Structures are given as structure tokens and as C-alpha cells.
Amino acid sequence: MTLKPRTTFLRFLIAGGFNTLFGWLVYAASILMGAPPWLALIIAIVTGIGFNFVTLGRYAFQDMAMKRFPRFVLSYVLIYITNLICLKALEPWQSSPIWGQLILTPPLAIFSYVLLSRITFNSKKS
What is the number of structural domains in the chain? Predict the structure, then answer.
């Protein structure tokens, strides 16, 4: 079944909202327990990858083919690198890496959608 891009994006926003909340809470808890931002990001991404693959694959993109998992992980590696670079760039203007991560959430969500819809769940590449 092929979903219209608008429907897929709305489903992505719903699933992504839950995923983002989970990831942000893991990140914030890691920071509060003393982890540096780069490690807190890794912890949040690693703990969220399996959960996010299920919620985004099944609900948002309606495709749970395991052959997509390596591209999903690659997308998350790119998201991590971009996130870390942006978080570092925000350091002079924000008081806490927790707030910096919160500021970055909307643009990173858009970036994630673009990567996942074009790299991971693009039916032309399956």
C-alpha cells in the first residue's frame, strides 16, 4: 500500500512525538547523571533505535522490512553527527545542553523525516 506523502508526514509527526519525548528524557537523564553531551546523545540514540524503527516503520511508513534496518541505523548515525555539531555550535548561547537539545528538536525532526523518507523508507530503493 502506498501512502500519500501528507498522510505519511502526519503519522511521522505522531510517532516522532513519542520517540522524541522518549529520546529527550533519556538524554536529559543522562546529562543529569553526569554524562557529557556526546555520550548522552549516544545513549539516547542507541536506546531509541529499536523502538523508533518499530514506531516509525510500522506506524508512520507502514513498512517493517528488516532489510531497511541498516539504512535506518545509517540515518541515525547521520542524525547523531548533525545533532552533535549543532549542539556544539549552540554552546556559547545556551546555558545547558538540555536546553540546547530542546532548541534543536524541531529542525532535527525535519531533518530526520527527510532522511528516513528518502533513505530508509523510500520504496524506490528497496
Answer: 1
Task: Write down the pLDDT at residue 126.
Answer: 44
Containing domain of residue 40, as a range?
5-125
Average pLDDT (57-76) is 91
> Which element (helix H / strand E) includes 52?
helix 37-54
| Burial class, 57, CB count within 10 angstroms (exposed 0-12 / middle 13-18 / buried 19+) | buried
Q: pLDDT by residue (tens digit) across 10-32?
A: 999 899 899 989 998 999 999 99
Distance CA 62, CA 73 (A): 18
Residue 51 predicted with pLDDT over 90: no
**Per-position DSSP letters for 81-104, written without gaps between them:** HHHHHHHHHHGGG-S-HHHHHHHH
How open is the CA angle 57-53-103, to the nearest 5 degrees? 105
| Backbone φ, ψ for residue 29 (5° rounding) | -65, -40
